[in-house]
Specification:
Length: about 290
């Protein structure tokens, strides 16, 4: 919410983050959420959905490089990719750096997000016009439920688990993601902050580790996200994201390197504590 010319994002009832707003470039209530594009003094053009910062021109590359390159380089030959959400275009921009990628399906629920980002965040949205992108406006929940053995990598670049994205953080969805993947497939979803969203990370890990043989969280830092420390959850049918002999980027990156990739999986004890295997889950692996 804006107070005067400050954007205020409530992290907890007693902790808020505030950014000085230079200009409100766009604002509308869409069928799914309240959408704003703001010019922030210190972070530039910023997409805000339901009062939560989604992406800023200043630090978006960190999130987008880490959600895309970690799973796509962990997979030996990713050709077919699905992105759920990601309406700002930053994730598909990074996906198309990978020379093996033949086709990407991107399913974004809110047309208004795509249009606003095309108009106000062109550096991020440039990936939305790629000739090998199949851009679908629709609910990722339904799309993934109708897919079988189709993708090498699925990236869930969703907003937080409220509103349209609520269903993207539960067992039924992760089981459908598993079924939509080819035998050697991987998926990654964003799971917010290890400081403020511990139960979410614990719950997502318990579910994903009950479905995928390999389930591993990894960390990065996104200055405009809650607490700055951001967690992703990776589920893999076969390939370990720390396996030797992984390819390295042949294009320039600003955050991702093979060393940053490996370090991202080195969890501090307080985060490792969140993902201790749930007792008695082993027997329930790999449904269907
Ligand atoms: N990086 C951001 C983050 O971590 O908070 C996410 C950015 S991206 C803009 C999030 C997108 O997910 C939004 O555009 C939102 O409309 C979309 N989204 C939310 N629920 C969805 C659903 N069920 N299916 C497809 N897209 C969805």
């Amino acid at each position: 919410m804006n107070q005067g010319n400050w954007l205020t994002e409530e992290q907890t009832p007693s902790y808020r983050t505030q950014w000085r707003v230079k200009q409100v470039l766009h604002e509308e209530q869409t069928p799914f959420q309240h959408l704003q594009v703001l010019e922030l003094e210190d972070f530039g053009r910023t997409l805000v959905l339901d009062g939560a910062v989604q992406t800023t021109a200043t630090d978006e590359y960190i999130y987008h490089e880490m959600i895309a390159h970690v799973p796509l380089l962990a997979h030996p030959n990713p050709e077919r990719v699905l992105v759920i959400g990601g309406g700002d275009g930053g994730t598909v921009r990074e996906v198309f750096h990978h020379p093996t990628v033949r086709k990407v399906d991107m399913v974004e629920i809110d047309q208004a997000v795509i249009e606003a980002c095309r108009r106000y965040l062109p550096e991020t949205a440039c990936g939305l016009d790629h000739p090998r992108l199949n851009l679908v406006v629709g609910d990722g929940l339904n799309w993934v439920a109708e897919r079988r053995d189709e993708y090498d990598v699925v990236l869930v670049d969703s907003s937080d688990p409220t509103g349209p994205a609520e269903g993207l953080f539960n067992q039924a969805f992760y089981q459908n993601v598993y079924r939509s993947l080819k035998p050697g497939g991987l998926f990654v979803c964003q799971t917010l902050s290890p400081f403020f969203h511990q139960s979410l990370i614990r719950d997502v890990y318990q579910v994903v580790s009950g479905i995928f043989p390999i389930a591993m969280p990894y960390l990065t830092v996104v200055p405009t996200y809650p607490s700055g420390l951001h967690c992703f959850m990776l589920g893999s049918k076969r390939h370990n994201p720390l396996r030797p002999g992984m390819k390295t980027p042949t294009w320039p990156t600003r955050w991702y390197t093979p060393e940053v990739h490996r370090a991202a999986f080195q969890l501090p004890p307080v985060v490792a504590e969140l993902v201790r295997p749930a007792k008695g889950m082993e027997s329930e692996k790999r449904p269907g």
